[in-house]
Amino acid sequence: MNQTSGRLDRGDGIELAWQRVAGRDPTIVFLPGFRSDMTGDKATALAAFAAARGQAMLRFDYSGHGTSGGEFLDGTIGAWASDALTVIDTLTSGKLILVGSSMGGWIALLTALARPERVAALVGIAAAPDFTQDLMWESMMPAERAILMRDGVLNIPSQYGEPTPITRKLIEDGANHRVLTGRVAIRCPVRLLHGQADPDVPWQLALKIAEQVESADARTILVKDGDHRLSRPADLALLCQTVAALLEDGA
Predict the structure, then answer these.
(1) N or C: which end of the chain has fewer CB within 10 A?
(2) What φ, ψ does residue 15 adopt, rounded to 5°?
(3) What backbone phi and psi angles, to 5 degrees, belong to 27?
(4) Model confidence pTM above 0.85
(5) Choosing from 65, 177, 194, 228, which is the catalytic residue?
(6) The CATH number of the domain where 230 resides is what?
């Protein structure tokens, strides 16, 4: 695999780790999820897929994630969306296919809104736009909200490992970056993969995204027994097939 890696100073001394596969346009850009990184199964599968067909591909870690600098507790949706733009603007040129997993789906939507002239297509995997408000804040008990507002942080249990620290600024900043409050001015092809057995993000959210984007070419692909991660071999094959079809259709 013709892959290079490096670290990019985002301008404030915090370095963002990245890996890139050389190839032709459009560049596939993988946007990881909340507390995830660029070494996961989906990112790795896409890198291998891109290398096999000579397609350019970029993946990276947000600040406070993976091997990038910065502290997770300092992160916000706005900061991570800015990280994405910094890496994309610096390390890529030409058209892009954005592939966002969970929170990365939100970041992908924000990126497409910020760079409409560059985004040729968007793929969401259990995409979770607006999750800080609709899934986190709305699910908190009044006592939990009180702790969050008083202490600035609330640790919530996670089935994936250690408790997840949720900060007040994450919630407040997230409210300023909501995208599903009305029509979403994204007109490129959109593909939304979602497992109907997802315990974290309701699959109905994929239908809402498809309905609210302005694109006439928006398709939702539901995996009846699929979980949130969609990282089984069949799920990864579906992801690569979805991206391949977009490329073959001229994305």
Answers:
(1) N
(2) -100, 135
(3) -80, 130
(4) yes
(5) 228
(6) 3.40.50.1820
- Copy the structure tokens of residue 20: 């890139």
Task: Please give the structure tokens belonging to residue 48.
Answer: 């291998």
End-to-end CA distance of the chain: 23
* Structural domain harbouring 29: 3-129+185-246
198 is catalytic: yes
Alpha helices in the chain (DSSP H): 41-53, 77-91, 103-114, 131, 142-151, 168-175, 204-212, 233-248
> How far, in Å, CA of 66 to CA of 36, rounded?
7
Q: Which of 102, 173, 177, 194 is catalytic?
A: 102
- Residue 162 within a domain: no
Residue 191 tokens, joined? 């593909």
Number of DSSP helices (H) and strands (E) in the chain, helices first = 8, 10
Catalytic residue among 83, 130, 198, 235: 198
Q: What is the pLDDT along the chain (251 residues), one digit of tens a residue?
A: 689 999 999 999 999 999 999 999 999 999 999 999 999 999 999 999 999 999 999 999 999 999 999 999 999 999 999 999 999 999 999 999 999 999 999 999 999 999 999 999 999 999 999 999 999 999 999 999 999 999 999 999 887 778 899 999 999 999 999 999 999 999 999 999 999 999 999 999 999 999 999 999 999 999 999 999 999 999 999 999 999 999 999 87
